[in-house]
Amino acid sequence: MTNTALTRVLLVEDNPADARLITEYLAEQSWPNIDADKPTVDHVDRLADARTALTEDVDVVLLDLGLPDSSGVETLDEVLAIGVPAPVVVMTGLDDERVGIDAVEHGAQDYLVKDDVTPRLLQQTLRYAIRREQQQRELRQRNAELALLNQVVRHDIRNDVAVILGWGDGLEAHVDEEGRTYLDRMLSAGEHITNITETVGDFLDVLEGDSEPELHPVDLESVLTNEIEKARSAYDNTTITVEGDLHDGLEVVATDLLSSVFRNLLNNAVTHNDKPEPEITVTVTDNGETVSVAVADNGPGIPDSQKDEIFGRGEMGLESSGSGIGLYLVDTLVEMYDGEVVLEDRAERPSASNRTQSGDNDPEGSVFTVVLQRSDPA
Questions:
Q1: Topology alike, domains 8-139 and 214-378
Q2: I need a labelling partner for 373 at 20 to 30 A (CA). Which of 122, 133, 249, 308 fits?
Q3: Cis preceding-peptide flag for 39 (omega within 30 of 0)
């Protein structure tokens, strides 16, 4: 099926009067680009018969949700499970928009209320359903090709960067102090490239999810400690201090991608820091039903006008003027976990101890606070 031509319709309807009316509407010769003897209508009145009649040459399915052998959205699920790529338009006798919306959420391309159907509305609905199905199928194919390309490119980049970092480590004993400065910058850039490839991979894992993520208890202490140790190893000129209620057995509701949240926040706190020796304080607060993790830095701070933009909120994340895909991924994941991310100036926090000498109104640094649901509220 390469166009929106309507040549074969599978009508699944157990009411003879409704079936006859729909068949007459489909045979209307006033429709443009449809011959008098087209489209062909295959009519069945049971789900069992629909399983046999739904073949690859069917362009679209008109489905009544209430059949003698099936009812409700389960009828739609059964038809979609057959696996034939024909779009499904649901018909209902209930003047209830919620029924149609539920059907679309379950995978139907559109819905029609029988009492409202006219020949013109029927034509438009079926043609639009066919076209949308084609576009979605083409998009899935392109996404699959891009995902494969991304996997190959990231693999090759990581391998080449690993070689660069390996040779760089071997050069440390052969450079003077001036050369070491340039070597350190080169190694830092290599580590940054590696972090980017990891972040892109995590981001695509989120985008490629076809359903709601399966949230489960995640050991916060283990995840956070591991990411802090990796950051300390990658940035040996950075001081990272941990404060508060981080302890063994503290679990939050998330997925295995929670580590990416803290990896990106820690990387952001270092790479966007203008101090020779970045200082980061990670503070964990157990609030009973939630857990807050604040990542504070001594960097330049972020203007109020950019506090939402930096996450890509209100616009496409990759086109935002913020810090890029890392923080957009953080915001996306935390929202998925039914949590929130709050960005503040460090001096605005009651426990802030790093106000500048020029006065309390001059903040130094930013604080990203992630609030997550506890898996076992205290």
A1: no
A2: 308
A3: yes
Find out if CATH 3.40.50.2300 is the number for domain 8-139: yes
Longest dimension (CA), the chain: 91
pLDDT in tens, 111-170: 998 888 988 899 889 989 999 888 888 888 887 777 777 777 778 888 888 888 889 888
Domain boundaries, the chain: 8-139, 214-378
For residue range 261-315, list pLDDT tens digits in order: 999 899 889 988 889 899 999 999 999 999 999 999 999 888 777 777 777 654 4
d(CA 68, CA 112): 20
Listing DSSP states for 30-72 in one string gives TSTT--TT-SEEEEESSHHHHHHH--TT--EEEEESEETTEET
Beta carbons within 8 Å of 82's beta carbon, 6+ residues apart: 51, 54
The whole-angstrom separation of Cα 113 and Cα 117 is: 7
For the domain made up of 214-378, give the CATH fold: Heat Shock Protein 90 (3.30.565)
CB atoms within 10 A of CB 207: 10
